[in-house]
Each structure stands twice: as C-alpha cells, then as structure tokens.
Amino acid sequence: MKFVVFVTALVAIASAFDFENDPEFEAHALECSKEHSFDISGFQSSNPDFDIFETHEAKCFLRCLLVKSNIMKDDVMDLEVIKQKYQVGDDVIVKTKECMEKSVQTDPCEKVYEIEMCVMKKINLN
C-alpha cells in the first residue's frame, strides 16, 4: 500500500519529502490509525479529502505519525530531521518554522493540524 499521496495531504511540509524511502512510514501510519481510531483507507485515492482531518481523532493521528516518524519531538517539529531525512529545501523549512512560531493552539493534536494547514497554504497545497 503506497501512502505518498496520503502523506502529501497529511503532512504539508512533506510535499517535498520522499516517504517511499522511509520503510517504517507505512507501519507508523497503520499503528497510529489503530491508536486513534482513524480510518486511513480513504487516502488511497489520488484526490484525498482534506476535510477528513477536521476530527480530533484525525488530528491526533497526524501528531502520532509525526512523532513516530521522528519529525516531531516534545510537540515541536524537528526541522533538522526534516531537512536531513527528507531532503526538503530551505524554503520549506523556513515556512514550517514560521507556522510553528505562529501557532497559538495548546492542545497538541490541534497544534499539529494548525501548523499543517498553515504550511499547506504557504506552499500552495490547499
């Protein structure tokens, strides 16, 4: 099962990430979907519905996936890991940092969603 399209929708900063080279990613996605009762089957289409992320379970799924993928530590995106592991450009890192600094959410799951939506807008995925 390929999650490349899913990840592009899921992790806005991942638009430039190459998750196909991350063999643990699919396992993390399946594990997090079970932990947070989130059905990921809808993301196998080439046009995933962004509205599905509006539930709290989906937002916590996002957070779980970022934590298990080492993209997020202590509720902060690890920009070095993102840059090194996924070889994104400096522009994506700068936009991600701006969105992290702009975030006002205190709930960890809501915060991840807020950051993701911000980055998506900045890199024109939404």
Offer a quick outline of the entry.
With 126 residues, this protein is mainly α. It has helices spanning 4-10, 25-35, 56-68, 79-86, 90-102, 108-122; strands spanning 72-73, 76-77.
The H-and-E topology, N to C, reads as HHHEEHHH
Largest β-sheet summary: 2 strands, antiparallel
Total of domains: 1
Give helix % range.
Answer: 40-55%
Q: What would you give as the CATH superfamily?
A: Pheromone/general odorant binding protein domain
Mean pLDDT comes to 75
The top-level CATH class is Mainly Alpha
Q: Determine the structural class based on helices, strands and strand pairing.
A: mainly alpha
Strand % is under 5%
Which strand order spans the largest sheet, edge to edge or round the barrel?
Answer: 1-2
Number of strands: 2
**H/I helix tally:** 6
CATH architecture name: Orthogonal Bundle
Low-confidence stretches: 1-18
| CATH topology (level 3) name | Recoverin, domain 1
- Specify Rg, calculated over alpha carbons: 13 Å
The outline comes out as globular
